[in-house]
Design brief:
The protein is of the alpha+beta class and 200 residues long. It has a single domain, classed as 3-Layer(aba) Sandwich (Aminopeptidase), CATH 3.40.630. The chain has helices at residues 31-39, 56-65, 115-129, 144-152, 183-192, 194-198, and strands at residues 12-16, 19-25, 71-72, 74-78, 81-89, 99-106, 134-140, 156-166, 172-181. Strands 1, 2, 3, 4, 5, 6, 7, 8 and 9 form a 9-stranded mixed β-sheet that branches.
Length: 200
């Protein structure tokens, strides 16, 4: 049986739709690939994350933080191109060091195929390997499809922050926060093994 606290080995190949994607740890050298990926995202999707990742300085700070221990990121590639990515963000100096923010972004052409679900499940394994107990996600309330996927994976609504973010046009949007106490995921991993629980 797999030890859930053993770091998960990457890269890992998965079948998504009719294509094979390779999930790997994001590297500091992936800046150009991330920039191309972000350019294909609808502007409204960028509200999933706290900072505007279309800005080169934000991407640089993100990649620089990979080696500092409070951000772990995965990239899903198809034919060498990034089609989805994640970040598990912690603050080891805070009172909530057992909690991480989960960020998941998927290229529009790859939505509805299960890639977002797959990346979220991979992040469950990452989080458990880091000894985390709780994950939370935030998104605007009109992202109904994304909210439905997270709810199917066991996330539950905790709060709605009214007019909490503004898009580039200055339109205020309500922000939903959903969370998942991942102890139940850990129990499932212990029973079935990480690979079986993730179907890979």
């Amino acid at each position: 049986m797999n030890d859930i606290h053993t770091p998960r080995a990457y890269p890992r190949k998965h079948l998504v739709g009719n294509a094979t994607v390779e999930v790997e740890l994001l590297q500091p050298s992936d800046g150009a690939d991330i920039a191309r990926f972000v350019q294909k995202l609808p502007t409204h999707d960028l509200l999933f994350v706290r900072r505007d990742v279309s800005h080169p300085k934000v991407v640089t700070a993100w990649l620089d933080a990979l080696g500092e221990g409070h951000i772990s990121s995965l990239a899903a590639r198809a034919d060498g191109e990034i089609v989805g990515c994640t970040a598990v963000v912690t603050d080891p100096r805070s009172w909530s060091r057992h909690v991480a923010e989960l960020r998941v972004m998927v290229s529009p052409a790859w939505r509805g195929l299960g890639l977002g679900r797959l990346l979220t499940q991979e992040c469950f394994a990452l989080a458990l390997g880091l000894g985390l107990e709780k994950l939370y996600v935030q998104m605007t309330v009109d992202q109904r499809s994304a909210i439905a996927v997270f709810e199917e994976l066991g996330f539950r609504a905790e709060a709605v922050l009214r007019d909490h973010v503004k898009d580039r046009d200055g339109t205020a949007c309500d922000l939903a926060i959903l969370s998942h106490h991942i102890a139940e995921v850990q129990s499932r991993f212990e029973v079935y093994g990480v690979a079986d629980a993730l179907g890979g």
